[in-house]
C-alpha cells in the first residue's frame, strides 16, 4: 500500500464543520494543523490478503497478512476465524513487523572461537564447519556428546524433523525442546490420568459452562483473545473462580479470587476435594463407572481439611469451602490451567489435583464440563507430539516401548539397534554441558540465555561447549554466544501446521519469499543430514512432503494425524486430533463416551501429596519470587523486544510489590535470591500478596528474572520451578538498565524500538487495583 499526501495547499483547505454533527474536539484538532484522514490517498491495487494464523501463543488466532504488489508483507488484518472472531491482541497486531525487520539475519555468521568476532560467511562455509565439528566431537567423545534443542514455536513438520534429525542424522539420544519449560507437567498429568496428552474440551465449551475455574493463568495478558470465551460464559450467568497469587485483570472480575501463596496449589485443590467429599457433593455413580484409585485419593483428601490447607496456602478457610460448593454444585463446570500451577517441582501433582476434583464431581467429557490446559507457545501442543521431546517418538509413541520403536524404525528405514534410547531434559542437558558430557549443540527456535532458570549455570554450561550452532531469524542472546548462526525463515515465509491449546490443527500459509540468503529450517536440517551421510532419509523438498511422512508416522497412534491434510485444513479452518481417516471430522471433545485412552477406558486417579517448594524460606529469604508474562511480550522477548509499539507499551521489567513494604512507585528495589540480585523499578500495588514479589521474565541480564530463579525440576516432568523461589527485597540506589537486543555485525539496534527502554518507571496498567499512578 502507498500513501501520498495531497498538495500542501489542499491540506490547508478546511471544510466548514456543523457543530451539531462534528464529534467533540474535531475543530480543535483541525485548527492545530491535523490532517483529516480523507486527505490521504490509499492505493491498494495489487494487494493480496494471505489467510494464516498468529505466530505467538496457543490460541492461534486467525489473521490475514497483507502483501504488496512486490510480494512483501506490510500489514495485518484480523480474520473472522472461529477461534478469534476478528480479534487480535497487541502481539498479533504487531507480529507482521518482524518479517521485514531491519534486524533480520540474512547471512550465516561464523567464528571459530568465542574470543573472535562474528563474520558473515557463505552457507557452504558455515555448513561445512558445522558438519566438521559434529564429526570431530562425535569421533572423539561418542555420538551422545552432541545434542539438539528444538522449539515449540516451530511448525509440526519441523518439530518432526528435529526428532528425526537427532536420532537418524546425529545418531544421538540427546534431543529435547523448549516446550519442556512450558507444558510438560500438564502433559505428564494428562497421560497418567487419561492416557492422552491434550485438553479435553474445545474453547467453545467455555461458553456453555455454569462455573469456570481458571488456575495459574493470567488469561487477560497471556491469552487475551481467549477472554472472549470467559466473557461469553459470564454473559449467560456462569460464575468465575480464579486461583492466582496476583489479582490479575481476569482475577479482578472473578466471583472468587483465591490469592494463595505460590507453591501451595495441590494442597488447596486437595482440600477443596476434602470439602466436596464431606458435603456429599461427589458424583459416586460417575466415579464407580469411570475411575480407578478413588478410595486412595479419598483417603489422602481426608488429610487436608480446610484448616490445614488454609494455613499452608495463606488464605481464609471460607474460600476453600466457597470454591468447593461453587464448582461441585454447578450443573456444568470446567477447569483450565496454565503455567502458574505447572512451573513447580510438584507441577504434575498440581495438575493431577485439579483432575481429581473434576473427576470426583463428574465434570468430564460433556459440553460445558471438562478439563483443559492452555498452551503457552503457538505450537506448544503440536510441538511435543511428534518426536522432539527426549522420551517420545512421532505420534506420541514412547521411545522405551519396543513395539513403538519397531514401528518408527520401519517408517524411517533404519534398524532398531540404530535408534538411540531416551535422552534427558533441556535443563539436564545444560548440566551435562557443564560436566562436558555434551560437548556440542545445535539450537533451533529457542533462547535459553533468557528462558532457562539460573542464568549463571546456563551461561557456564553453554560456554563449556566446544561447538554451538543456533538457527534463528534474529540474533538472540543465546545465538550471540554461538560459533555459528544460521539465518532461517519467519513463520510468514514458509507453510506448515500447528496444534493450538484445543489440539485443533491449523494451517499457516506462506505470505512472502524469504530475503536473499535466508533458508527454511527444513532445508537446513535436510542439508546437514545430507552432509552427514543421511541424505536419503531426509529427501524432503518442502513442508508438504514432511507432513505426508508425519501423517503416516502418526497413523494408528493416540496422536493420530493421518486423516488431516493441507486441503482439509484450508477447507475447514482446523481439525482436532485424533483424526484417523480423511472422512473423519476430528475429535474436538474427548471422553464423551465416558472412556479414556487407557486400555481399561477409565480415568486413573492419582494420590497427591503436597510438599514445600525446593528453595526454602528462612530469615534471610522470607518472601516468594514468582515470574510470568506481560501482554506486550512473548517468552524470551527475542521477537517482541524489537517491535516498537510493544517496546513502547512495556519497555522494561518491574518488581510488583505490596504497599506494606514502604516503597514508592518507580523506586529502585533490589530482589535477592540464592542465585544473585537485580534491581527493578517498584510497581506498588495491593493486587499482590504482601509475602510475594512478581517480575516478568522477557528480558536478558542484567534485568533477567531468570538470573534469580532456581533450576530445581519436577522429578517426573523435569519442568523448572519458575513460579516460586525464596527471596528478599531491599532498597537500592539505581535501577539496572535494560540492554538492547543483539544485532549482527555492522548493524545497530533498530532505534525506533529502543527509545522507551530508558524509561525508569514501570507501566501503569493492567497490573490492577491499587496500582500507583505515574508522576
Automatic annotation (TrEMBL):
Residue ranges annotated for the 4Fe-4S Mo/W bis-MGD-type domain, each copy included: 47-103
Compositional bias ranges of the Polar residues kind: 766-775
Keyword rRNA-binding: no
Keywords, comma-separated and alphabetical: 4Fe-4S, Iron, Iron-sulfur, Metal-binding
Region called Disordered, residue ranges: 1-33, 378-399, 738-775
Chain coiled-coil ranges: none
Organism domain of life: Bacteria
Presence of the UniProt keyword Iron-sulfur in the record: yes
Protein's name in the database: Molybdopterin oxidoreductase family protein
Organism from which the protein derives: Streptomyces cavourensis
Taxonomic lineage: Bacteria, Bacillati, Actinomycetota, Actinomycetes, Kitasatosporales
